Structures are given as structure tokens and as C-alpha cells.
Amino acid sequence: MKRMVTILAASLAMTSFTGSGLAAEQGETVKMVSKQEQQEMVNIAHRGASGHAPENTMGAFQKGVEMKADYIEIDVQMTKDGELVVIHDTTVDRTTNGTGKVGDLTLKEIRQLDAGSWFSEAFTGESVPTFEEVLAEFQGKVGILVELKAPELYTGVEEKVADALIEKNMSAPNNNKIIIQSFNHESIKKSKELLPNLSHGVLTGGSWANVTEEQLAQFASYADYFNPTMKIVTDELVSNVHEAGMDIYPYTSRSQEQALRLFDLNVDGIITDYPEHVYSHPVKNS
Ligand code: G3P
Ligand code: CA
């Protein structure tokens, strides 16, 4: 296991979690886990290690790899001229020095924008990556959790993503290094038909707090992951998702307390802006 984990775990193991934080507020205590349990928790760097570098940039993805995340999570959209780019919002306004909708700009126009300086001057010059660029750089180095972001805006985006993965030989059976997910569940059904050998996930927001066993069974007919907002995660939800045969990767942990709570709820993976939090669960000596 990683040296960093051991050091962080050792220091945290000496800390009482009953006096502060979310768990304590809820009257919970943090359980000790085995090293194996810690190793098995899947660590997903949300939009890259976006607590440390500008989201959805090569710098954030590289940071995620350096921090030993198992996956980087990326948001894929399509430009006016049909190119796949990696950016979260449907406009470039918040995360670049430009303005306008992603779908109204050409790739050339988007590539001229600065996607780093809004976060910190140290990242000036980062650009909006293409999907192709991310695959080329990170294939074989880290898993990639691909979110089809607002696919209803981009006719044919599922086919383009599938073509790019097939072209790079990343659509092989049992390729557990690529997972495709979306809040648009029809889009995921379509993607599953195009890429039947790849794992897919449904993203769900707060309105799915009372998801029924029947609904989970329906999701499980085409998806392998049920990935909800962490706000609705309970023991019962985790258990029901597992009963349905899916894994659960909640989003988005942004504090140590949030990561520890998810860990103790027995989720399978944690989508976080801070990969270091996932490696900080107190570990048993034995
Ligand atoms: O991977 C889950 C998470 O990325 C979904 O929310 O808004 O950050 O894309 P969002
Ligand atoms: Ca996302």
C-alpha cells in the first residue's frame, strides 16, 4: 500500500472523530478498517484533482494520477463543428476567459481560451482538452470515468464517444478502466447498445432519495453503477443498490468528514475533488 496512506492513516488513527465533523454531528463514530478495505475503496478524482488544479484540464488529470487516484472523472461535450471536448458547464464562461455556449463555438475557438487562470495564475495557459487528447495521454495510466454531459444538446455524441473508444481499442470486454455515466439515462441506454462490453452508470440527484427496488432493477438492466449525490446515501440505499447487482460511487466529496462518512456507509467508490481524503480512513494494525 502507498506510503502516504500509511502515514495519513497512522496520524488519523490517533485522532478522535467523535468531537468534530459531520459524523460526530450525526452521532456517528468512524470505524477502523483493514488495509485491504482501504485499498479496495475506488478513488475517483472529480474533474481531475479539482481541489488542487483547474477542473477538467490536463493539469488536474495529471494531479489525479500523481495522487494515486484510481480514476479521473471527465465531462464530455461537443463543439459546433462536432469535436468532443472536456468541460463541465454548457458555456465556457465560468472556467475560461471566454464566453458563449460550448455548442456554439468551434474547436479552434475553444482551444484559444485560457482554462487555467480563473483558478490560479499558476495555471495560466491550460486549455480545454479534447476527449482524444485525454484518452491519448491517460490510456493505461489511470481509469477514466466519462460523463456524457448534457448529451440531449449534442445529437450523435454517444456515437462519437463510442467511435473514439473503439478507435483506441478501449472498448474491449472487461475493460474496467473505462466507465461511461450520465444524468441522461436514455443516453446511457444508447451508449450501452453501442458499447455493450463497457461498464455504464446512471447519475442521480436528490429527487432519487426514495428510489424503489423496482427502479433499481430497471437501472441494472443496462447499468453497472448507480452514482447518486452523496446527500441521499444511506445504509439502506447502499444495500439496495448492491442487492440490485450494481456498485455505487457517490459524488462529490469535498471534505475529510464527507469522505469518511461515505467510506463507513460501505460505498464502492468515492468521487472527490480531494483524492487524499479517500486514503485517510483510520486503519487497523492487524
Ligand atoms: O461524477 C459525478 C459528478 O461529476 C456529477 O456532477 O455536476 O460534477 O458533473 P457534476
Ligand atoms: Ca461530472
UniProtKB/TrEMBL annotation:
The keyword Signal applies. Keywords: Signal. Residues 41-282 form the GP-PDE domain. The keyword RNA-binding does not apply. It holds the Pfam family GDPD. Residues 1-23 form the signal peptide. One of its GO terms (molecular function) is phosphoric diester hydrolase activity. One of its GO terms (biological process) is lipid metabolic process. It comes from the Bacteria. Gene3D superfamilies: Phosphatidylinositol (PI) phosphodiesterase. This is Glycerophosphodiester phosphodiesterase. It comes from Planococcus donghaensis. The lineage of its organism: Bacteria, Bacillati, Bacillota, Bacilli, Bacillales.
